[in-house]
Write a structure and sequence with these properties.
single chain, 236 residues, alpha+beta, 29% helix, globular, five-stranded antiparallel beta sheet
Length: 236
């Protein structure tokens, strides 16, 4: 094999490996417990919230996920969509003091929701599960923060409770959160609505990174084959 052909093969291998590394890094960066919603999120409104839980362990299964809610920006109640193989429990709390929200005074609210899988089951490594709820009466707050606790069958516990601050790097274990708009903003254009949902934007950005990475790999392979073909046609 000529030196030119050896160089072309090494170049193709290096670029493809770099593209795969980009894909891997994007996957790791997005592997957090997150919250998103298909609905427009407005204070006092009605919406479905979906918690997406990936398993980040190499061999252990996620068998329990607990999502906690605020006592100062309370959720009056929640309905749960059944998730196959999981049992769900809603725990309520007495508020430290009554909270006036959405034209009513709350003295009790949702404290936490816990999903538990049977022994030997749960979310396997490399997989994720979604847990949907419906809330009627979203709290009167700009950002709805819902810290989560993820438990594995090997005893590991991960607390997703760190606040995400605009303009700063994302923390290692960010709490699931959603941005809420004022009711007067409910009729805003779809583009503006997307901007007030950082979780959805983050998911979209993650998808774009994956597609971009795939494009890099495809382009690298095409480039390598094209370069190799050109070199083969050249006299030695």
């Amino acid at each position: 094999m000529s030196a030119q052909r050896k160089f072309a093969r090494r170049l193709t291998t290096t670029v493809v490996a770099t593209g795969l590394l980009v894909l891997g890094a994007a996957g790791v960066a997005s592997a957090h417990v997150t919250a998103h919603s298909p609905d427009t999120l407005t204070k006092g409104g009605f919406a479905e919230i979906v918690f997406r839980v990936p398993d980040e362990e190499a061999t252990a299964h996620t068998t329990r996920i607990q999502v906690n809610f605020s006592a100062t920006a309370p959720v009056p109640g929640a309905q749960l969509k059944p998730v196959d193989g999981w049992t769900a429990t809603v725990t309520t709390m007495n508020l430290p003091k009554p909270v006036n929200t959405n034209n009513e005074t709350l003295t009790t609210a949702v404290k936490s929701i816990t999903w538990t899988a049977p022994k030997g089951q749960g979310i396997a490594p490399g997989q994720f599960q979604e847990f949907p709820i419906v809330v009627e009466g979203l709290p009167d707050t700009d950002t709805m923060v819902m810290p989560a606790v993820q438990t594995y069958d090997n005893g590991d516990v991960v607390r997703w409770n760190q606040l995400t601050v605009a303009g700063k790097a994302e923390p290692e274990h960010p709490a699931p959160h959603l941005a809420l708009a004022a009711p007067s903003d409910a009729a805003a254009p779809a583009a503006a609505t997307a901007q007030v949902n950082p979780t959805a934007a983050s998911a979209s950005d993650g998808t774009a990174r994956w597609l971009g990475g795939i494009g890099i790999v495809i382009a690298a392979v095409a480039f390598g084959f094209g370069l190799g073909a050109c070199l083969r046609r050249r006299p030695a």
